[in-house]
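Two proteins, back to back. First:
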Amino acid sequence: MKFTKAIALAALAAGFIATSAPAMAQDAAAEPTPDFTFTGNIALTNNYIFRGFSQTNGDFAVQGGMDLSHKSGLYVGTWASNVEFKDGATGLNDSTFEIDVYAGYKGTFGNSIFSYDVGAIFYAYPGDAGTGYDYWEFYAKLNADLGFMTLGTGFVYSPDFFANTGDMINVPLNFSIPIPLGSDTWGLSIGGQLGYNVFTETGVTWDGIHDDYWNWNIGLTVAITDWFNVDLRYHDTSLNGVACKALRCDEQFTAMISRAF
């Protein structure tokens, strides 16, 4: 069954992380932590891609978010971007924005290299005219900091995905490798993600044919300390054909400039 396959993939990825790392990390010097921390981010990208699908019909997007975290590990946040689903002309959907609201809890397993993040996120599309674009996702993520690289996996579940398409499962596996430059001003890293996505209800498909697919991306991120990051990335999926080209889920390239504060 597809559901069993997704769970097995998540377990395999988590096992890979666990067996690829030493048992304990070096103890770090404790530093005073404020009760609450507020952070934000802004970004400009030539194409907003979500799990291999363009959300802006291949056009530019302006994005930004805010997060409030408590030292206990609890956090809440929101994030927004413009979107374009090519259906405005039909009158079925007038939404031009996506607004995400999320909350969760994150922490580490003692003094180990492993960290976790569990929570829920609501994707809202104001003006969707009753097409059912709004949906919930619930997630559990596991990360490992190996020093020379970080690895992550997880399990994401939606009880009623975008446009009322029913149960959906996403299992990601991602990595990031910093490249030493010997500079306090410049940073460079290579990173990517492989994701498995499946509808668990019979008859629901992504492109009219397939009820599951893989997506992947890989790219370089250049960080300029106290200024901004530039990310250049290649995206693709296992879907293909005319339907995929219309949905913009074939190979795509993105360039993003972002700033965190």
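And the second protein:
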Amino acid sequence: MLLTAYRKQYSVLTELDLEFAFGKTRPDLCIFPKRTLDWLTDEIVVQDVPLTTLEILSPEQSMNSLLERIYKKHFPAGVKTVWLIIPALQIVSILLPNRTQLNFTEGTITDPETGIQLQLAEIFEG
């Protein structure tokens, strides 16, 4: 859904190790401005800063450790928004660097920085 709807505007990449001045991190998804990809070179560690990162809270993960990583690595590096997806509660929170949270439990999720919109039901459809 995200890849299809926004592929002309953004590059959505997975499995990237981001190397920031504040340390390495590996978000579940990264959204960059549209970029030309070189499929012959597998770039695993990236130093470019994505516009948005998506983090999916797994059952084994601590919410505090994930939030600490977001606020100490993602935002200081220049990430504009982080989507925190909590499957167990079917909630998506869009976090902003100023510690504002936009919490979605139904309807349309709208990212205030990128304009990306997704239906919550599409994210959690079984």
